[in-house]
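Retry 2 of 3 after timeout on previous attempt. Resubmitting structure tokens to design endpoint.
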């Protein structure tokens, strides 16, 4: 009678167990000491364990396989030796054998990041405990990998030996690398030693000299450094500056982690006053860096109150997305550039006065509740953002320049310097004797670009240039000419032009212009007057010009107090424009060109001309004393032209 399959398996296991006993008994006690350096013995002096290890390639002598590198390579082994060396592997083998229904060869999948060389070194120890690595025998990289494997598979003796070797090698040059490696371990002894080394050497580690190594740190390393609650205030300041340099190495990929890590910094636990004292006493951070740090404490949404004695541009440079800057009443001199997304620059009404320029070069920002004053000195500075000039009648650089999408400008007064000084004089106390000195006169903007040219005429200066999509300009009063909109889906609402040469100029599609009131200059801009020329020729004054674009909408456009001798245009639709819808306009002359415009309720004052060119326009409820039609396929309904 043949023996059963179960009987055969039992007999094989008994023979293998006997072999294991022989292997263990053949190991020399003297070779198991931790400080012994491994010398490869001659073949005749090998222990039985090493002999079996060397003959693993003979599949007839092995009964299991380890699959490595996602199945691209395999390592054979003896099941009972592996089970004896690692309880974790023993459990994995048992579960796998229980699933095998037909005595298939047992196969264990090793984590894909483990290479063949590393796993063979690990397996060698399971076969012969005398193969423990000695100090200096293995490179650090292999030692780290063996440590992780020993921890993963619960091989205590190999784990302890690797920890012992690495703790002896701990130094400032490798403490962060060891710290990063040991973060993955189930035990914390070596991790704590590495972190103590980081604390002792934090000044050196966070210095700019080590940037090349520091930029490779993982965000988890930073998180642990900030969360272990052991850094002093000065060390946290150094760590924060180093974190900023880490982010700057790859802003696109590290922005999100940078803001999350900023919230881990423990200064908030000091209280705001104590934190400020701690930061100031270190002398490490500039004012801008302190502002940036506190904005990180608040998750990037802290309101920063600023007064005229502070460096506003420095604070704007330190803004993170979502920052809110509140301007106290007073005068702020200079050109102020906003580059951080979703920044809010909010004044305290017209008493928050910027004598210079405002430039927005990002998205989703808000500028509101302030006045911007044109001065000759403010135009003397070079614009480092971009050399942009406006078309449509505005000369030079715009006083407010917006380049981006979904920005908002609201409740803003744009004044000439003389008008702003008049306002200040009116606000002066009535008991004051003599002429009041204009606010801000004691600290004028230095004229760093003096020329012999004549002063620029404020009436010809461009007020606002807005380049982008989905921007919104609301409740604007300007004494400077021209608000230029280039882009699509923008809105301009409730705008007053006071004594200016030109109004709104639009280039783009689906823009909305609503409630524009235009009060032109008292003298005719077409007269031969150098102050009213630009680009070598006279300027034609116009309240609204659409030079190109489709599906734009104009509602409630009015010109008031028009001098009888002024050749003023209320509206110009140029040849490259199409399908504009115009509603409820009154005042000066209208010139329509292009194709497919619809005008409803356009009523011109006496003497002004309604001129049509282009094709396929529709006019409803329009009237004018003078009417010139050179267009084609026009449709008029209930119109009166004399």
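Retry 2 succeeded. Sequence:
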């Amino acid at each position: 009678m043949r023996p059963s399959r179960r009987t055969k398996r039992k007999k094989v296991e008994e023979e293998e167990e006997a072999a294991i006993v022989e292997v263990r008994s053949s190991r020399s006690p003297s070779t198991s000491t931790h400080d012994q350096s491994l010398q490869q013995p001659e073949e005749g002096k090998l222990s039985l364990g090493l002999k079996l290890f060397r003959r693993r390639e003979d599949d007839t002598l092995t009964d299991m396989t380890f699959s490595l590198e996602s199945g691209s390579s395999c390592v054979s082994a003896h099941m009972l030796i592996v089970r004896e060396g690692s309880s974790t592997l023993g459990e994995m083998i048992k579960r796998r054998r229980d699933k095998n229904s037909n005595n298939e060869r047992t196969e264990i999948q090793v984590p894909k990041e483990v290479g063949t060389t590393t796993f063979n070194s690990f397996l060698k120890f399971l076969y012969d405990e005398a193969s423990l690595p000695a100090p200096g025998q293995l490179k650090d990289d292999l030692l780290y990998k063996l440590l992780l494997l020993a921890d993963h598979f619960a091989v205590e003796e190999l784990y302890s030996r690797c920890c012992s070797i690495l703790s002896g090698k701990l130094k400032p040059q490798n403490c962060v690398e060891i710290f990063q490696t040991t973060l993955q371990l189930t035990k914390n002894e070596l991790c704590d030693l590495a972190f103590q080394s980081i604390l002792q050497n934090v000044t050196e580690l966070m210095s700019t000299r080590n940037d090349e190594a520091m930029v490779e740190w993982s965000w988890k390393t930073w998180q642990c450094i900030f969360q272990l609650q052991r850094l002093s205030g000065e060390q946290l300041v150094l760590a924060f500056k180093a974190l900023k340099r880490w982010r700057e190495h790859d802003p696109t990929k590290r922005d999100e982690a940078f803001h999350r890590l900023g919230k881990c910094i423990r200064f908030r636990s000091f209280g705001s006053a104590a934190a400020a004292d701690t930061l100031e006493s270190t002398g490490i951070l500039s004012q801008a860096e302190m502002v940036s740090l506190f904005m990180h404490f608040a998750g990037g949404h802290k309101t920063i109150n600023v007064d005229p004695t502070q460096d506003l541009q420095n604070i704007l440079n330190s803004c993170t997305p979502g920052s809110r800057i509140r301007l106290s009443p007073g005068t702020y001199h200079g050109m102020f550039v906003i580059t951080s997304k979703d920044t809010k620059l909010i004044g305290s009404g017209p008493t928050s006065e910027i004598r210079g320029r405002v430039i927005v070069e990002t998205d989703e920002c808000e500028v509101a509740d302030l006045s911007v004053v044109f001065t000759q000195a403010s135009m003397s500075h070079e614009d480092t953002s971009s050399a942009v000039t406006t078309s449509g009648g505005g000369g030079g650089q715009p006083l407010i320049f917006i380049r981006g999408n979904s920005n908002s400008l609201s409740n803003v007064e744009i004044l000439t310097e003389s008008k702003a000084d008049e306002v200040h004089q009116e606000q002066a106390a009535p008991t004051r004797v003599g002429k009041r000195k204009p606010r801000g006169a004691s600290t004028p903007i230095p004229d760093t670009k003096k020329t012999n040219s004549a002063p620029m005429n404020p009436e010809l200066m461009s007020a606002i240039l807005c380049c982008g999509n989905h921007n919104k300009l609301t409740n604007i009063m300007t004494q400077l000419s021209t608000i230029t909109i280039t882009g699509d889906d923008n809105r301009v609402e409730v705008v007053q032009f006071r004594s200016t040469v030109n109004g709104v100029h639009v280039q783009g599609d689906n823009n909305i212009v609503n409630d524009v009131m235009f009060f032109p200059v008292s003298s005719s801009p077409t007269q031969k007057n150098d102050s009213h020329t630009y680009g070598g020729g006279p300027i034609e004054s116009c309240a609204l010009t659409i030079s190109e674009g489709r599906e734009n909408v104009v509602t409630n456009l009015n010109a008031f107090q028009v001098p009888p001798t002024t050749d003023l245009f209320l509206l110009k639709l140029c040849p490259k424009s199409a399908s504009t819808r115009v509603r409820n306009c009154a005042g000066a002359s209208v010139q329509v060109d292009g194709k497919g415009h619809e005008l409803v309720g356009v009523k011109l004052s006496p003497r002004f001309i309604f001129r049509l060119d282009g094709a396929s326009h529709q006019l409803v409820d329009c009237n004018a004393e003078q009417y010139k039609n050179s267009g084609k396929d026009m449709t008029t309904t209930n119109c009166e032209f004399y």
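Attempt log closed. The two ends are 126 Å apart (CA to CA).
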